[in-house]
Amino acid sequence: MFLDKLKGQLSKHQGLFIGEDTAFRSAVLIPLVQVEGEWHILFEVRALKMRKQPGDISFPGGRIDATDVSPLAAALRETSEELKIDEKTIQVIGQLSPYIASPSFVIYPFVGVIEGDQFLRDYSKDEVEELFTVPVKWLLNHEPYLHHVNITPEPSPDFPFDKIMNGTEYQWRARSMEEWFFEYGQYTIWGLTARILKHFITILKKGDFLDLGDSVCS
User: Fold this and answer.
1) Which residues form a coiled coil (predicted)?
2) Tell me: the pLDDT tens digits for 151-160?
3) How crowded is the C-beta side of 36, counted as CA atoms within 13 Å?
4) CA distance 137 to 141
5) E-assigned strands of the chain?
6) Angstrom distances, CA of residue 196 to CA of 41, 101, 106
């Protein structure tokens, strides 16, 4: 009886990883737009007056609210708010694997086409300082450069060393975090945005996709 009940419980939908249900969850859109018949990716420069990461380059997106029915719904809502566009003008192409920045922070990236260019002239100045685009062809031929950030665990002052083997001599495992940098003119794309972008470009390089000059409807 116990094993049958356990089997049924384990067969139910579970999160992607332990802790997903309590993690800070965010969703972003990688926006594809056409500029003079060529595919570009749209980026935001975060408003300089924002409390967190002012001036950083990012994709449209943000925190998944309790009212969002899914990560995709959050990505579309945030994109609509930041670019002042109707969600119906966004053609969702697909999604990437979630990016687990840490056990307490996960990002769900989606890919979509934004029709028109009205957003280039009228966007939320409270959240966006400016917008710019980068040609996909340029990204396919550009090699970002890599730096590492070494992270060493630092236990809290009240950590119970007496409860673990070797106590204060315990050998904590340090780790190295990759930081990728894309340099495009005056813009430097790095951090979480660069990691997601690099993954997306790697998918394009591996796959067989339509000519970048094709129409939006292709």
Assistant:
1) none
2) 888 999 999 9
3) 3
4) 6
5) 24-35, 38-46, 57-58, 61-63, 90-95, 99-102, 105-114, 128-135, 145-151, 175-184, 187-189
6) 13, 11, 12
